[in-house]
Amino acid sequence: MREAIDLIRSTSTPDRAAVLFDRVDTYERLAPYLPGWPALAGLRIGGVADEWSDARIQSFDAERSELWYVIDFGAEQHRETGDAIDRRLSESLCLVSRQFAGAARVSRYVSVEPTTDLNASTEFEDNIKLENARISGTAIIAGEPICVELQWTATQTPSTEYTVFVHLLDSNNQVIAQSDVSPGSGFAPTTTWFPSQAIVDRHGLIVPATVAPGMYRLTLGLYDLEGTRLPVRSTAEMPATDSFLLGTLEIRK
């Protein structure tokens, strides 16, 4: 599982992030390869999510702005429990990314709370509506994480499974930070939505410390398995586009 360790070490630092492993034996195998990283722990859990310690996860949140969760995907007999923990983490944290690294599935979360209402709503094709959005702040220090919470509904069950993207763009339309994740941190695919169901969907973004101060645009959209973006529904005032402007953020040093 060297790839998982390399991924964590190349994209984060011990002063910013804690690492959580799905099982004690995974921790015992991998922790020695992360010297200097604090808050390394293996959850001593049973077969369902409510048997593990919420207090331990909350202590991780208080100490660090990021949390990595590593599942040994080769241990198939424990995979259901690992998924239950990932699902539980997604209820209180904001998922930045989830990917495979060798035999591990690695999820990266941030622990800031979305408290500022963006007063943003729009309708997409395929019966999808953004009801509202909140963000952890509209003035961000370079290097700090962001959490965006989206509230979705559908008038009918969407026909396709979509990925939601939240992108922070500079004045040249270059992506500065992003989260591209299936709704509900991957646990609420659009093809499972039923009419009028409220879907809460949290996305974490990490602004690089090297970003220049200034104003940046936060955009939102959806795309299918082939990468084709779902159009925003056109109105008399606005033609159809393939993304929606959630708002603007100020990045400070």
- The spatial strand order of the largest sheet comes to 2-1-3-5-4
CATH class of the largest domain: Mainly Beta
H/E topology pattern: HEHEHEHEEEEEEEEEEEE
Which percent range fits the helix content?
A: 10-25%
Q: Mean pLDDT score, rounded?
A: 88
Question: Could you name the CATH topology of the largest domain?
Answer: Immunoglobulin-like
- Give the strand content: 35-45%
CATH architecture of the largest domain: Sandwich
Number of domains: 2
Structural class: alpha+beta
Give me the Rg, rounded: 19 Å
Number of helices: 4
Describe the structure concisely for a colleague.
16% of the residues lie in helices and 38% in strands. With 253 residues, it is α+β, with helices and mostly antiparallel strands.
Comma- or semicolon-separated keywords:
Immunoglobulin-like; 253 residues; five-stranded antiparallel sheet; five-stranded mixed sheet; alpha+beta; single chain; 15 strands
